[in-house]
Amino acid sequence: MTELHAYALGGMREVVAGDRLDELIAAALAEQGLQVRDGDILVVTSKIVSKAEGRTVRADDREAAITDETVRVVATRAHPGGVTRIVENRLGIVQAAAGVDASNTPVGTVLLLPVDPDASARQLAAHLRERLGVRVGILISDTLGRAWREGQTDQAIGSAGVRVVDDLRGGVDTFGQTLEVTQMAVADEIASAADLVKGKASGMPVALLRGLSHLVVETLETPARALTRTGPTDMFRLGSDEAHAEGHAEGYAEGFEAGYLAGLAAMP
């Protein structure tokens, strides 16, 4: 029988710029009496990575920070509290406010995402593997909304030593039919499972998951960025209102040019 165990780590103090997360996590594991085993996965919320890396800015700079982190605007919607911007950020992630977040950070400050979450995950994994003497995988998670679905879930934005996709193509289902397209985004599923025990306001930013050792590999080159869908594979590049406006503008321009040329041709 397949089993999955998830443990949230309590007892971690507030992370500040310059902290060594491997030291803080190792201390929290020891305090909780958790012995990390080969094949365990640690899911670390991006907020404490950002704090350790000094990615804190003043709250009154939030809108400017969102603009600075934005590569492309996907959609904007006005609401009673202001305007929500759904954008593609410089990491290729499409999310609200470019990932700039005011929760779980001191009043008057906001957090930017880590500069390179995959690099942060690799560094943390290397340090923890050396410190703990086991092959542990690291995922860095962040909270994202989903098109067509209400609510938010945690997803993996950084990875090291964890296969982010379980590619089932070429296998067969229980009826013997070949699987043609199935690729399970297991890193995102693990991040969401970890959040069930970490929570959002519990002060427990790290979870240990046990039972998925088949997804933990020796190499640390397992980037979560491989999960982002942008460029030619992006079927939903714009919000519905923005796509309509863009199509209208292009149609108007083409029609205007055609009408202008037709008018010239009709002139004596």
Automatic annotation (TrEMBL):
The keyword Magnesium applies. Keywords: GTP-binding, Ligase, Magnesium, Manganese, Metal-binding, Nucleotide-binding, Potassium. Pfam families: F420_ligase (PF01996). GO terms for molecular function: coenzyme F420-0:L-glutamate ligase activity; GTP binding; metal ion binding. Gene3D superfamilies: CofE-like, CofE-like domain. SUPFAM superfamilies: CofE-like. It comes from the Bacteria. The keyword Heme does not apply. Residues 12-211 form the Coenzyme F420:L-glutamate ligase-like domain. NCBIfam families: F420_cofE (TIGR01916). PANTHER family: COENZYME F420:L-GLUTAMATE LIGASE (PTHR47917:SF1), PTHR47917. This is Coenzyme F420-0:L-glutamate ligase. It comes from Subtercola boreus.
